Amino acid sequence: MTKRNLFDQQYYDHFYSRSCHRATDRRSDDRLGDFVCAYLEYLEQPVRSVIDIGCGFGLWRDVIARHFPKARYTGVEISAYLCEEYGWTQASVVDFRASKPFDLVVCKDTLQYLSPKNAEAAIENLAILCRGALYFNVLTHEDWEENCDQSRTDPDIYLRRANWYRNRLQRQFTNVGGGLFLSTRSPSMPWELEKLRATR
User: Fold this and answer.
1) Which of 51, 79, 106, 184 lies 20 to 30 angstroms, CA to CA, from 173?
2) Domain boundaries, given as residue ranges, for the chain
3) CA–CA separation, 45 and 172 (whole Å)
4) pTM of the full predicted structure?
């Protein structure tokens, strides 16, 4: 399913616990989450249910609770280690199913571990799971070359161009910037210049 078959304690200790290799931390995730939630409030997107796919340590859970205290949060993880530690639902973004779609889907730093075929299936599944907004972020070829600190970034991934993702997401979502995509089922009505268009 994934390029890396084992997201075990050693992996998370290396990339998340050691300060010299840490890929992200609570402060940066809080800042990002605050931005995403504030933008959703501005867009008047209702948030009553949230699924965080590839949730890791669940750093978004507290942010969601702070901004949308009545929202139901569901954490989904492929890592057996994290599911045992935190009680998340163990499943893949490729084939996780739910009885109802969610108002907010968070999928951060997950699809770079999937083959092209599975990444396409995952994007299709995100569209099924989302009836409101998707926060989506993934390491791209451009990020690897120009933006990221490679000493803090897992190199065991599939690197694809940003437009590979944009062109597939735009089939079911409208890109409104900042990593946020509105489902075609969302009641929000963004202004035209808030929308970003993919280019080939």
Assistant:
1) 79
2) 9-194
3) 17
4) 0.88
The pLDDT assigned to 155 comes to 80
| For residue 100, pLDDT beyond 90 | yes
Confidence of residue 12 (pLDDT cuts 50, 70, 90): low
Query: What is the Cα–Cα distance from 75 to 86, expressed in whole angstroms?
Result: 9
Q: Phi/psi at 102 (nearest 5 deg)?
A: -110, 150
Number of residues that this document lists for the chain: 200
Q: Are strands 49-53 and 102-108 parallel, antiparallel or unpaired?
A: parallel
CB-CB contact of 121 with 96 (8 Å): no
Q: What mean pLDDT is predicted for residues 108-117?
A: 95
Share above pLDDT 90 across residues of the chain, in percent, rounded to a whole number: 78
CATH architecture of 9-194: 3-Layer(aba) Sandwich (3.40)
Task: Report the pLDDT value the prediction gives residue 20, as an integer from 0 to 100.
Answer: 47
